[in-house]
Amino acid sequence: MFELSKIHDLSKTIKILYVEDDLRIQEQVVRMFKQLHFQIDIAIDGKDGLDKVLEKEYDIVLTDIIMPRMDGMQMIQEIKKINPDIKIIITSAYNDKEKMLSYKSDIDLYYDKPFSIPKLINDIIVLMTPPE
What we know:
alpha/beta; Rossmann fold
């Protein structure tokens, strides 16, 4: 795990879009990220997430898969057309691992729900830390 000062320094520079339709999970994750000073915006489904990516630049899209209007995989495909360098992290209870593997080139990290928020934060810091 990273020391708290490193997390605070790096978190201020990372822009995250969190796409989650379960408001209880969304609230828990957002609260923890904001306590660590991450810049985090919220979208309630894939369509809302895609609209936000069209309006603003993000470093990371953290998303669920099964959502109304547009699912996470459709949203990811559209986002990658706009910005192929954006990091994609999936948090899902979706169980079709074979399907997930078919999208492996578009996904940087994958977490089964329920997931550890501290581990997610640590992994984001690792993902976004430039190599020395």
